[in-house]
Each structure stands twice: as structure tokens, then as C-alpha cells.
Amino acid sequence: xxxxxxxxxxxxxxxxxxxxxxxxxxxxxxxxxxxxxxxxxxxxxxxxxxxxxxxxxxxxxxxxxxxxxxxxxxxxxxxxxxxxxxxxxxxxxxxxxxxxxxxxxxxxxxxxxxxxxxxxxxxxxxxxxxxxxxxxxxxxxxxxxxxxxxxxxxxxxxxxxxxxxxxxxxxxxxxxxxxxxxxxxxxxxxxxxxxxxxxxxxxxxxxxxxxxxxxxxxxxxxxxxxxxxxxxxx
Length: 234
Description:
Shape: globular
Largest sheet: 7 strands, parallel
Order of helices and strands: EHEHEHEHEEEHEHEHEHH
Distance between the termini: 31 Å
Number of strands: 10
Structural class: alpha/beta
Strand content: 15-25%
Radius of gyration: 17 Å
């Protein structure tokens, strides 16, 4: 399962951790794979570090790391390092599929960010990875203004590639405004979950206990009534 987003900074890592926590609470063996991690030079925790802290998956793997905070292919070129080859990533992920009930692949930035190269030298994206693996996608979206267009574009790109996809709101505000409620109404038909703003700062034990309540059964959660959720959230 691919976890991508409408843009960078929308909450992909915390959503990946939440799906991990919910799936493990349901008894599944979960692996999380980060194909390309960038921005490692400053020593801050990586995305996989955060997933491990919040959800402790059975397995966590980063396939390629680069120092500069750029798209993975650009970061590889800037550092004069070998970019990640598409089928190297495919083979590594398939190896985890054989050993786990669920493998979550966290992308970088949005769906069409250049991740590495094909054997031909042409760039590939996480959309190409989803097609190669026949994997469904979770699109992490913002709650506020602008999200409908960005989300629709991402879903359209996935649908054109025959990749099944649903939406998770990465950070639902504690005090939602009219725009948030209006967006929620439009997103509900494809909505698979919504995380509260600040979920990533929770104590890991609280995070793991809470995660199933943020996600629908399609993502191993227990959220089954958006009307009731909206009344509670309001």
C-alpha cells in the first residue's frame, strides 16, 4: 500500500504510523518502507525514525538516503550518489511482501516527484512504483483551503493509472472553520480517515491506542460513521 500526498508536509509520515498502529492492533505483521529519504545532513529524525517511535512496525527499511532536502532524484545528483533504480526498489519491497501481512510504502512529497531512475535512465515516481507493485494508494490531504484541487489532481493521476485510492486528512484542526467542514463534505465519498492536528506529538502509547479511531475499516480502523465523527469533532 502506497502512502502519498497532495504535497510535502501534509502528514504522510504520521498517517503511515497511524495505519501501522491500527493494522498491528488488528494482528497484522507490518513493514514500512521508505524508498527515498532526503535531508539527512542535519541529523534530525528521519521519517522512518518517527514511524518507529509512534508505531513500532515489525520491520522498517529505508532504501536510499541523501543529505540534501530535495526530491530524491535531485538529492542524489546533488550529492553525486547513485539514484535509486526502480526495479531495485520493486524487488526490495516484494521481499518484504513475502514476510508481512501489510507493507506500507511512504513516498516523498507528492505523487509525481522524481524518485530515481529506470534502467533506461528515465526518472520514475511513486506512481510508477504503485503500478509496478499493483499497490493501492492512500492520498494524504490537507483539511483547509486549496485541498480540493490538489486532491482531485492526485486522485485523477492515480485513477488514470488504474491505481485504487482513498483519502486521509493528515491534520484535522481542533477548531475547524467553515472551509474545513465544506471540504469534508466534498471529500467524504473517498475518505478513509482523518487524524487530529498534533497527532504526531502524542505519547506513543496514546497514539497507538487512538489510531484505530481515526481510520475506517478499509485501513484497519473502527471509524464507520462520518456523521457521528463530525458531531464529535464539532
